[in-house]
Amino acid sequence: MRKIISVCICVAAMQPAFATTNPNGEIKKERTAVTEMKQNAVLVFSAETDSTATASAATDTAAPAPKPKIHTVHGKNSLTFSQVSYNKWEAGGISNITLRGMSNLEYNYKKKSFHYQSIFDGAYAMTAEESNTPMKKEDRFVFTNTVGLRITKKSPFYWIALADLKSQFAPSYQVPTDKNSDIISRLFSPAYLTLSLGASYKYKDMLSVTFAPVSGRCIFVLDTAIANKGLYEVKKGYTTESHMGCYASVVFSKTLWKNFSYNSKLELFSNYKDNPQNIDMDWENKFYMKLTAFFAIELYIRLVYKDKARYQEKLPDGSFLTRGPALQVNQSLNIGLTYMF
Which of 38, 139, 181, 208 has the CB geometry, 3.0–4.6 Å to 174, for a possible disulfide? Predict the structure, then answer.
């Protein structure tokens, strides 16, 4: 547009030089042409300025800033299967089949200074060795709900109220392959419920650090037969045990490299009334590598230490001896179908 208008200005400026013969009139014509040229130049400048402003305004209206989502839902679900077979194998071996399912669901509601988060994380696995009865290999679920209110506008600190429930889906037996043996755990036997009030620091969606000096933990053993054994910090014959204490947690989630992520959750609890220096620990670690759109590898490691926990050790004569406390370790490596949303 600028080139066309510039040519028009030149023609308007040159036209009076060919059309005038009277010197007086010529001078007058030239002044008129110069005046018109200036006016045209002003018009060109105005046109360019207006067109630039219009283009800028069009650009601004064409790409408005996206509004933050109030509701977000994320999920990761996987199903893995493994099969090993031996037939007249010189080095020996046990044929087995293993099936494992895992689900992690997360819901977030964020509006202004208010934040609500609900997370469900569960896994269940069964394995069968040759002709033996299938036995449970992994069994857990965690249901966590957190309500947070930002302390000040744009502050990374929140006042929080937290409720966390841990238990399992199916029964476990003293002899894993013998369902006629004593039951040592099942749904809500035990179950751990933690209620906490405190503060939390959040850095983006990567790091969350929570400190709750006002916390209560309740342990449930609702099965009478299990309660009579006096396990899981609950007195023999009782079905519940409660403690007042301090709760702290560190949650970290990060994609370290392309298709490789690491998730960690460390929980600490101190009982105010009973040896507060002996801190209970529960630390979950998940290493996740995406192979294709629907195949992935997951390494799961869980470390648990409880001051009053007891475990049963099988002796060579077949009897069981109760020992504890000790560091409890649960590890699994899984490759299989994975669906994320």
Answer: 181
Measured CA to CA, the distance from residue 57 to residue 50 in angstroms comes to 10
C-beta of residue 306 within 8 angstroms of C-beta of residue 267: no
How far is it, in rounded angstroms, from Cα 184 to Cα 311? 10
Distance of CA 15 to the CA centre of its chain: 75
pLDDT for the residue 107: 96
Q: Are the C-beta atoms of 98 and 127 separated by less than 8 Å? A: yes
The Cα–Cα gap between 19 and 34 comes to 15
Residue pair 220/239 in contact by the 8 Å Cβ criterion: yes
* Token couple for 9: 């200005």
pTM above 0.90? no
Structure-token pair, residue 262: 């690491």
Question: What mean pLDDT value characterizes the chain?
Answer: 81
Token look-up 């476990």 returns 172
Q: What is the largest CA-CA distance in the chain?
A: 134
